[in-house]
Fold this sequence. Notes:
Layout: H1 8-22, H2 31-36, H3 42-54, E1 61-64, E2 71-77, E3 80-89, H4 99-117, E4 123-130, H5 138-146, E5 151-155, E6 164-165, H6 171-183, H7 201-205, E7 210-214, H8 236-255
Parallel strand pairs: 3-4, 3-5, 5-7
Antiparallel strand pairs: 1-2, 2-4, 6-7
Helix pairs in contact: 1-3, 4-8, 6-8
Amino acid sequence: MSTDAPGEGGWRTGLLLLGALLALPAAGLELIPALEAAPRGNAAREAAAIELFNVHCPELELRRIPRTTQRNVVCALPGAGAPVLVAAHYDRIGAGAGVVDNWSGLVMTAELLREFSSRRRRSAFVFVATGAEETGMRGALALARDMTPRAMVNVDTVGLREPRVDPRSDRDLRELAHSEAARLGMTLAAPRIRWMSGDWEPFKRRGVPVLNLHSLRPRDERAVHTRRDRVERINVDHWERTLLLTSRILWELDQQQNWGEEP
């Protein structure tokens, strides 16, 4: 758990990151500057997540997480039916920079929010930067008590290599991910990684269909929460392909408005 207190320095770091993300063009993303600007303290990371989301979400909601000073950063986009939830955690622990785990996913979720907030949609969406994932998934636990989405897509630790799907994800969502990957010329691996956990778990326990996207291998345990977690490990091409795949999956869920709902 971070003991950093929020302050002017955190907001300044957030503004630097905001400028880096706003500079991302539609193609050939300037990803590395956005990742290099990742704050280290969790209070500063929360502040930066707020700045990133607020650009495309004027009615941003900050929800306190019980038993922690961190908050969930929530942006609800209006639409029909129960929402599709897209989440990535912003907090970090350990000696690393927290770029791989999980500023890579946070920046991607902010970019997806930019895309979906600017285009016509059929369905409701909720984009969340979750806090306190590294200390027992407390942010996701609180969120799962507050809402029941028709599907939940979790983006965690992306860009090390081609996107991968957690085999513990919902079967239909896995099939959708494999189908969209095939259309993009990708082969989507699904390694079983026993030590990997994430914000998708509280939702799965409540019966919500979940899809956990990542880029890990079983032997990558030493790549997170250590000094090996640094920006040089991110492959821009793999990150961009993961972004494209995730966007395609979300747009398919948007078109299939009744997907995941009870008949």
